[in-house]
Design a protein that fits this description.
The complex is a heterotrimer of chains A (94), B (480) and C (324). Chain A has 94 residues and is mainly α. Chain A contains 3 helices and no strands. The chains are: A mainly alpha (94), B mainly alpha (480), C mainly alpha (324).
């Protein structure tokens, strides 16, 4: 069980750093948003890996609830960022 | 009455909903709300002073399982300052946004910003802090974007993506803390904290996320554009409150929750970055061509001073010396909140009347807008640290504490920062008192300037002269 | 033996996820990047299911992959294509970022590896399960979301509302697509009712099985967005007051019930014994409606006609204060 927990936790850390690196490298809005979402997915995966208690046990529900909150916050921020980019484009076109 | 701690969050939240349902009366709702929050924060501060820290277990669940709201003197004083700034800025905004359309967009988001600030200051749970940080970040970005021009939108987009990155790094730290400790409650964590590798990595992640949001040098690059291009009342709240509450969490985590896990070397690093922020921010403020940009760079510098305190406080033995240094940190944070918001509100008046805020073209401002010029001068006194401002006492104490902790090398940094601050403020005042007639007469005389003047007086006179009276409360606010 | 097999499956899933994550981030063609991102989200949903997090699997599939992907696809046309004008990071900068990311990965993995087998891995789960009977619901995730940590969820709804307010302030509603073809209209006739019924089911079932307000709200939003795409919307026919109420009702009921409970039982959101199940259902229903309204508006991307009641836009001189 520990090995699976560790495997997924380290995969989460890997995704987090991949997303972090790409967010810092990209200069444009949309690629940056994609990278931020990958980065966030990494953090979520770390949370859920910690919650995993093996195939026969109920997983810890607290990280599940936290990640659910995180997913909704992330999609709200994404929608707002997209709207800001759209408005900037409209101003550029005028 | 015993549940004021909930009402300071609930009232602005409900008010924000009301302004959506009933946009025509949004300004009346918001002004009443700001005053109600101010009243509640005064009462809360009094309660904390009389009876010590207050805890409210939400849902009635034991801490750990549920989330607790907590207030102690440290957060109470910051809350009180924040509500004074917010109230003044609300009255100012009511006059500032002449276009009713802007008012309709402004008030619900402004009230959400108040919810975010209050819930952040009162939160006693690490993950809940993440949610409040996101609420704060999104409402701040939305308010910045209200300026609706290219510069503001570009600044807002950058502000948003940097802010999101900061929150994710913070959240990664939260995940690590939960992995190691199995709880998110700050009080429980303070008891359990141990100096192992996981805690250090988690604390580094939490701090890195907060430092991005607090714009500590060299992560300050997003701040000047955002703070300078937002509408004036928004800039005031961003510079005085939004960056400062991130510093609040940082100080809370370092000095209160995780102090057993902390090494002095890490605080020294923050001190060095703070020192560089003081010099770099002040220098850029001196070079800035626009008044609001100058004020924004000045924020970078002033936040740097707060970080100078950390290595000094950690090095001092517990007792009066440490109490005084901590009190000075809090006094500086409070004074800067009042002074910087007053400066931005004053700059907003000038920008409205002159149609620009180019420092070189401010000639004649002192004649056309004597009160506004006076406000900027008062705010300047507090930013530089002349007596009788709170900054004077705080800097004096910082120098004394540096000597006590044998870290004399901070003194030249403080001196250089103070000299540069004097230079950039006298540059503005020099132009304002110079000849010229580019600035028109004030139309909304008083409605904008009285709130700004109140804040400037708090910064330059009231906090300094009254500090003897509130010093007890400030020292009460120690969290270590 | 079977354990080893599972471990291999896990290793495969993880490798695939990391590769997808990497090429999503590295993709220079943004359309391709978004497609990969959606695939990434679906794979992640699979992994949530594998890690015994079915609530998340649902949420990820609907929100993480579905709504996010749709939002991004919609945004492609609003953004400039990747041109040569964009400044690139200098080589020095790129290498220092790479180095920092690698070092961060090593340090974080190392400290996680040190920790995981040393601490009690049950953490809060025992506490949650022991109090589950008092929470009013039998799905532990719903119990955490709407009872134990209900305050997080309340602030999360405030985050959603803030984002929508920002979107409404930024621009007017975009015009709908061309009138839908026969195929879409025919499909809508059965797909929309199915989505609405599924949303109701998810909401109801959330009390004791995977599901709940967020998944249901997203499902309902999908139905509304499809209707909008099908040309069934009309900005002027929309009752704006109703829309305002729908947007805020989730938070309003949440705070209202919380405050009433505070007056009755001392603490904010402290549900009276026996009432918790019903109150949670009421709050969740209202939250579902608000989330659906919010996500729909976010996707449609702007304010409907007449959203801002002030109509003296004939007086543009007032906007002088915003020239900065």
């Amino acid at each position: 069980m520990i090995s699976q927990q560790l495997l997924y936790a380290i995969a989460g850390i890997g995704l987090f750093t991949i997303g972090l690196r790409a967010t810092l490298l990209h200069q444009q809005l949309l690629p940056r948003l994609l990278s931020l979402n990958v980065c966030g997915a990494g953090v979520f995966l770390t949370f859920i890996a910690i919650a995993y208690q093996g195939p026969d046990a109920v997983a810890d529900p607290v990280p599940h609830a936290l990640v659910l909150t995180g997913i909704v916050v992330a999609v709200s921020a994404l929608a707002m960022a997209v709207a800001l980019g759209r408005r900037l484009r409209m101003l550029d076109d005028e | 009455m015993n549940n004021l701690i909930v009402w300071v969050i609930g009232i602005p939240l409900l008010a924000s909903l009301l302004t959506i349902i009933w946009p025509r009366r949004a300004n009346v709702i918001a002004l009443l709300t700001a005053l109600a929050c101010l009243l509640a924060s005064i009462l809360l501060t009094y309660q904390v002073h009389a009876g010590g820290p207050i805890t409210h277990a939400l849902g009635g669940w034991a801490s750990g399982l549920g989330i607790a709201l907590r207030i102690d003197a440290f957060s109470a004083l910051l809350l009180l300052m924040a509500m004074l700034v917010v109230s003044a800025a609300s009255f100012y905004a009511n006059a500032y946004f002449a276009d009713p359309l802007k008012q309709v967009r402004f008030w619900p988001l402004w009230l959400m910003l108040i919810v975010a600030i209050n819930s952040l200051l009162l939160s006693g749970d690490l993950f809940n802090l993440y949610v409040t940080l996101e609420l704060l970040g999104l409402s701040a970005v939305a308010l910045t974007a209200l300026s609706d021009n290219r510069a503001a939108l570009q600044a807002a987009i950058r502000y948003l993506s940097i802010g999101l990155l900061g929150s994710l790094v913070f959240l990664a730290g939260v995940a690590f803390i939960y992995a190691g400790y199995g709880t998110l409650d700050l009080l429980q964590l303070a008891e359990l904290a141990r100096p192992d590798a996981l805690t250090l990595v988690a604390l580094a992640l939490l701090s890195a996320g907060l430092l991005i949001k607090a714009a500590l040098f060299p992560m300050h690059f997003w701040l000047p554009a955002a703070h300078a291009s937002a509408p004036a009342p928004v800039s005031a709240a961003l510079s005085a409150l939004v960056v400062k509450v991130s510093v609040y969490i940082l100080v809370r985590l370092w000095l209160d929750v995780f102090d057993p896990a902390l090494s002095p070397a890490a605080t020294l690093l923050l001190g060095i970055l703070g020192g560089m922020a003081v010099i770099w921010g002040s220098w850029q403020a001196l070079l800035a061509q626009r008044l609001k940009l100058m004020a924004a760079y000045s924020t970078v510098a002033q936040l740097g001073y707060l970080f100078l305190f950390l290595p000094v406080i950690v090095a001092l033995p517990a007792g009066e010396l440490r109490d005084n240094a901590f009190g000075a940190l809090l006094l500086l944070a409070l004074t800067h909140g009042f002074a910087k918001s007053a400066l931005f509100l004053g700059a907003g008046v000038i920008q409205q009347q002159a149609g620009h805020d180019r420092i070189a073209d401010l000639g004649g401002t002192a004649r056309a807008l004597p009160l506004t010029t006076f406000i900027i001068a008062l705010a300047g006194i507090a930013l530089v640290g002349l007596p009788p401002s709170g900054t004077f006492l705080a800097k004096w104490q910082l120098i004394a504490s540096s000597i006590h902790s044998q870290q004399w090398w901070w003194i030249p940094v403080i001196a250089a920062g103070t000299l540069l601050a004097t230079a950039y403020l006298f540059r503005v005042l020099g132009h304002a008192f110079g000849p010229g007639d580019s600035v028109g007469k004030v139309v909304n005389w008083g409605r904008e300037e009285i709130p700004a003047l109140t804040l400037a007086l708090f910064a330059s006179v009231i906090l300094g002269l009254g500090s003897a009276g509130i010093w007890d409360l400030i020292v009460d606010g120690r969290i270590y | 033996m079977i354990d080893l097999l599972w471990l291999m499956v896990d290793a495969l899933l993880v490798t695939l996820l990391l590769i997808l994550g990497w090429i999503t981030c590295a993709s220079t063609d943004i359309k391709r990047g978004i497609t990969l991102f959606t695939a990434f989200g679906l794979l992640l949903a699979l992994i949530w299911a594998r890690l015994r997090a079915p609530d998340l699997a649902l949420a990820e599939a609907v929100i993480g992959a579905g709504i996010s992907g749709a939002l991004l696809l919609r945004a492609i046309n609003d953004h400039k294509p990747l041109g040569s004008s964009t400044p690139q990071r200098s080589a020095w900068m790129t290498w220092s970022i790479n180095l920092m990311a690698l070092a961060l990965f090593c340090v974080m993995s190392w400290s996680m590896w040190l920790t995981l087998d040393q601490v009690d891995s049950t953490r809060l789960s025992q506490l949650v399960l022991s109090q589950l009977d008092d929470s009013g619901v039998s799905n532990p995730v719903t119990a955490v979301l709407l009872n134990f940590r209900a305050y997080d969820t309340l602030l999360e709804l405030a985050v959603v509302l803030t984002a929508v307010l920002a979107i409404l302030a930024l621009s007017p509603m975009r015009s709908a697509f061309q009138p839908a073809g026969v195929l879409l209209t025919g499909m809508l006739r059965w797909l929309v009712p199915v989505l609405i019924v599924s949303a109701g089911y998810l909401l109801w079932v959330g009390a004791h099985a995977p599901g709940g307000a967020f998944q249901a709200g997203a499902m309902l939003a999908a139905a509304m967005i499809l209707l909008h795409q099908g040309g069934y919307h009309s900005g002027s026919g929309l009752n704006l007051m109703l829309l305002r109420v729908l947007l805020v009702i989730g938070i309003a009921l949440f705070v209202g019930i919380g405050l009433v409970m505070m007056l009755l039982n001392q603490s904010f959101l402290d549900y009276s014994p026996g009432w918790a199940g019903l109150l949670i259902l009421v709050i969740e229903t209202a939250a579902t409606v608000s989330i659906a309204a919010a996500l729909t508006l976010a996707f449609v991307g702007g304010r409907p006609d007449g959203w801002e009641p002030v109509t003296d836009s004939s007086n543009p001189s007032n906007s002088a204060e915003f020239n900065s």
